[in-house]
Amino acid sequence: MLHNIQKHSFHYLPLVLLIHALSGSADAKREIPVGAIFHQVPDHSYESEIAFRYAIERVNMHEKHFELVPIVRYVSPEDSFKTERKVCELAAEGVTAVFGPSSILTSGIVGSICKTLEIPHIITHWDPEPLGGIDPELQAMTINLYPEADVLSRALADLIVDYSWKSFTIIYDSDEGLMRLKDILQIHGPSDAPITVRQIDDDPDYRPLLKDIQSSGESHIILEIRPDRILELLRQAKEVKMLEEYQSYIITSLDAHTIDFEELRYSRSNITALRLMDTKSFDIKNAVHDWEQGEARMKRQFRVSPEHVHTESALYNDAVKIYATAIRELDATEEITPSRLSCGSKNLRQWPFGLRIINYMKVKTEHGITGPIIFDDFGRRAHFHLDIIELSKDEGFKKIATWDPTHGVNYTRSQGEVYSQIVESLQNKTFIVASRIGAPFLMFKEKKDGEFLEGNNRFEGYSLELIDGISKILGFQYRMELVPDGKYGSYNKVTKKWDGLVKHLLDRVSISILYAKPVQQPKDLFSFLSPLSLDVWIYMATAYLGVSVLLFVLSRMAPADWENPHPCKQDNDEVENIWDMFNALWLTMGSIMGQGCDILPKAISTRLVAGMWWFFALIMLSSYTANLAAFLTMERMDATIESAEDLAKQSKIKYGVVMGGSTMAFFQTSNFSTYQRMWASMESARPSVFTKSNDEGRDRVIKGKRMYAFLMESTSLEYITERYCDLTQIGGLLDSKGYGIAMPVNSPYRTAISGAVLKMQEEGKLYQLKTRWWKEMRGGGQCTEVPNSSQENELGIGNVGGVFVVLALGCLCAFIIGILEFLWNVRKVAVEEKVTPWDALKAELKFALNISVTSKPVHNTLSESTASGKSSLRSKSESRRGSELAGRGNNVRTAASLNNIDKIGFVFDKN
């Protein structure tokens, strides 16, 4: 931006003559003088004056009935006496309005005189609300195009809320500046983080102040200072490492876009500012063109880009435009004539048109360089639009959002653009990744003979490969570092400082790895089955069915189990077998349940089967009962470990965590009463239950003989149980958390890194890494089945298989005896009935296989109980057979017709 202007060369008469020549109708126009007061300081007042003069020129080019004549005066910002005199001079020259000045002190004097003379007073600077509130009388003749103080403060507050700043530091240089931020100071409640307010003086060295802010850990800074100080403060902030990724600045000045930030464009911090105008609009480009061409005609050089136009200059342009509109529309109904007024006259006169012009401007809506222009009843600009701009390395300040009192912050860039910008900023950067040694996340790589390892090659593990995968996706470099104290991080209430990994994060050491913690699961409803393994239960069911079937078959084959259904009736000619399948099942069921039965087998084979089954049932029932007691005792112990409530109530089993770890912090800071009791118990236990690492906790569990439990992260626990098969996870977890990559607060890379992690998850790479480091590398996969509390204590087939072998052998013996009993009976039948053994075998076997028949006629044989009382078995048989034949008549056929008898069961005729 190049300026070369002689201020004394600004006289309105040559400009008026130029306007007359350009309009071609100077004689037909009435002259309406307008006054302006600018400051005599080397600031941008000359740009505002140029904007004021050429805005009037453009108005005069289009007006047919009047032309505005600018009358300019210059005063010092602090010289109130001279300011008063200059205002009175303007009034004496008959000005119809006074524009400016931009100082609050001198502007108040001008406004007071204009109120007395009823001359419109138009200002373009920030004006605070008086302590006693606005007096409508005092403000009756003042119009302010600068955004209303309270609304502008609310815009800044909305931006801070949108950015989710929980704490921040305000740097200001004047009391006026602090007043502009009153809404910001009020958005925090008593329970919120404190706001730090720091004032800078005239000392140009801001580094001590910036270092204090840096040591406090604050990363959010609001700059409420003069625009000419902003660049130097940020330059010094860069020197003390306060323009890094994690610092964010909001510049409250509406002229921040006019500062040349070229040397800071590549800084890594976020610098946000507000702007009242759209620098790419046609109106501002057209205005800048007028300024440059007008100065060229006056043989003066002036260059300014639309992106660097000061807010005050744009407001002067809009102020002239809206004032000319009011004059034009009121002049159409009543001719407006200037009046020369005197400040010191005894007969004080007021300009009769002033109040009407002001009231018209208050209700009139215009659109200018600074957007929509709407005033409230007090002449304040209460509705306006702001551009939220952000410093970028490619385009300087770039518009990212807009703000208005109705809708608040509304972003104009997409999430994709934000993500692309962050990913681009990551390219070719090197990050420090702080972690600690802990399998399987990060471990020292095992060296081969003569091998020298350095840098990242010293390590291996899940965390290293995870970060390596992310770095390949996002294109950054990284360097692994170990935290010196080897801790995850805990807060020391005495020193009020963090240690471990958290300290590194607070010290802005880029990325660090944190791990998960333990959660609660429901108990097994069918845990009563656990004393016996599933295989044993299946074998028992099979044995139960097998023994029942064997008992049923043998009872049909054994003659002793065919009984007289009516014992009191000795001559009953039929016998029954009560051992149907249902009774066989009932006998075996009652035996295994330890209960008796009303009926018992009588044959040797069936008795042997029943005896073997009773023996088996006794052994299994005793084993189950004994093991159930042990199992329930164990379940109570495990439940104590898996249930926080039970663990907190008992004192026999000790429990602990890693000292200074995240699990310890969980118990230490928990508000839940159970966890508080657990923490108190751990803290007071002697000897100490805390360990320095998970490995020490693992070894302590092994040596503790089930009298020590170690609370640790579930993922680390899973890693250990994959390699130590005598250890197991008891119960569930105390709470549930997942993996996380920890970064300093407000890190701009969080979204990009989270996106990279999600991409790895979708591609299945996280699962592959988990499988690789948990189940494959460094001895993983040794325990094919992770034992649990019930599996450790249940009886398997290896424990009780012997009783099944005894049962099988006993049943085999019973089956053989049953066969022998059956054959012996066949022999007896063949001898007694005088048939061939083969015919007797077929007849008896056919009857035994017909399971639907449960009774049969009595054979003409003598039982062993009656044979001892007779003289000879043969004679008694003949006598009995004779009596049977006498009772049966011709019922019986010869042995040759045995197979034609319809009813199973046989009576042999000796004829």
From TrEMBL:
Q: Write the protein's name.
A: Glutamate receptor 1
Tell me which species this is from.
Anopheles minimus
Annotated signal peptide: 1-28
Q: How does it sit in the membrane?
A: Multi-pass membrane protein
Query: The Ionotropic glutamate receptor C-terminal domain covers which part of the protein?
Result: 430-776
Of the GO CC terms on this record, one is:
ionotropic glutamate receptor complex
The family database entries (InterPro entries) matched by this protein are listed as:
ANF_lig-bd_rcpt, Glu/Gly-bd, Ionotropic_Glu_rcpt, Iontro_rcpt_C, Peripla_BP_I
Limits of the Ionotropic glutamate receptor L-glutamate and glycine-binding domain? 440-507
Tell me where the transmembrane regions lie: 536-554, 612-634, 800-824
Gene Ontology MF terms in the entry:
glutamate-gated receptor activity
